[in-house]
Amino acid sequence: MREKNKTKAQLLTEVAALRQQVAELQAAASVHQRQDRAGEDGARCEQAETNDAGERALLPDPSETVVVLNAEQRRIEAALRESEERLRLVMQMAPVLLYDLDVKSGTFSGNDGNRQLFKLEPPSGFGSDWWQTQIHPEDRAATLASLQAALASGEQFWTGEYRSSRGDGSYAYVMNRAHFVRDAAGDLIRLVGAAIDISQRKQTELALQESEARYRMLFENANDAFAVVNLDRTVANINRAMEKLLGWSREELIGQDYYRALTPAGIALSEERGRRLQAGEKIPSIFEHEFLRKDGSTVLIEGRIRFIRDQAGTPIGFQGIYRDISERKLAEQKLQAERDFARQIMATMGQGLVVVGADSTMEYLNPAVTRMLGYQPEDVIGKSATSFIVPEDESRLLQIRGRLWRGETLTYEMGVRHANGQYLPALITATPRWHEGKITGTIQTISDLTERKQAQEQLEKAREFCLRSRETTNSARK
Description:
Layout: H1 8-37, H2 42-58, H3 62-93, E1 97-102, E2 107-110, H4 113-118, H5 128-134, H6 137-152, E3 157-165, E4 171-182, E5 188-197, H7 199-221, E6 225-230, E7 235-238, H8 240-246, H9 250-253, H10 264-278, E8 286-292, E9 298-309, E10 315-324, H11 326-348, E11 352-357, E12 362-365, H12 367-373, H13 377-380, H14 394-404, E13 410-417, E14 423-435, E15 438-448, H15 450-477
Antiparallel strand pairs: 1-2, 1-5, 3-4, 4-5, 6-7, 6-10, 8-9, 9-10, 11-12, 11-15, 13-14, 14-15
């Protein structure tokens, strides 16, 4: 198991060392054999033979050592073959293109990455020229220039990203990392590296870049003013609309305290909202306050705040969206003044006035109606106008209503129920109420005809009395 963790280079080194030891021991055994065969004269030779015999007795048997070393060599070579097989399998199965370029011959060797990753069938004996043709035309010059610059600078590694063709005609985004192998003179002899398909990552990056570009375009061209502010209140960015709103340029505001553009009232409101947020209170995201322009004037704005958070969800700043509502406020004030004036007129007019909605419910009545019919507003608002009409006039009222909804203005008499239950004659003038080109109800003025009816009855009685008196006088003369 220990050999399995060794690198191929380590195993090759061990094999070479063992082979050297085997050669040395074999040479030593040959020397001993020649000495055994050689004869020596005299006592000196006998003594030498005696000493030699003693030394041989102390040394291990060379043949046994050779056997042991051969066994160790075979074991290491087997481990080396196993390691090389694992490396071969990894190179074939890994989702990466591994390559080794022999600079002298210009040929590539490596795994099957071209087929696995790019569905390509490289030509036999292909080299760097074929690789260059696979680079997208728009990326080729920059990629080769980057590679040549790294070679010229003497760097050890080069990394490049480019588009490389696939077998189906499309292109994959590739990250290629190469190691320059040089000889003792520093000349390049090999280029060893790996290329991986980074299309998915690149597509994600491009999508993010497009999203950021769209955001920047919206940010810069929005009609509303935008400001990005850090938690320490320093302004990080503003758009053109914010520059126009405040009169300060982007360069003048970025890095400055956000409070520089607020009036004292605006600062007080901002701090109050901050305290309420820190207390955990939910506050409206839309608010109104004043900005301070560069020229010292103020502008009333409507603001909306959104926190900017990091990946952990912790707030790191906020984005403010602001809209100048000065003109809108003036228009609202003008409209409110007109409404108040109209209400004053309706409240002081002698005639009764009611507003009836599209569903025939009462929406408003002026004080004259209260005096005329004895109702308080809460007794009438929300109830059907038909319930205050003499029952025998209801069918005629439906006909009148149909004409009103066709846009006519009508004047008619109708009996109206008093709060005491009695009915009194009324003269009603009704006109359609329009909104955005549609009829949404009617506005009606009501006059009490009781006194007029009584006067007409008295006049009619007087006429009858005169006629009878005249007839009586004429009869007496005859």
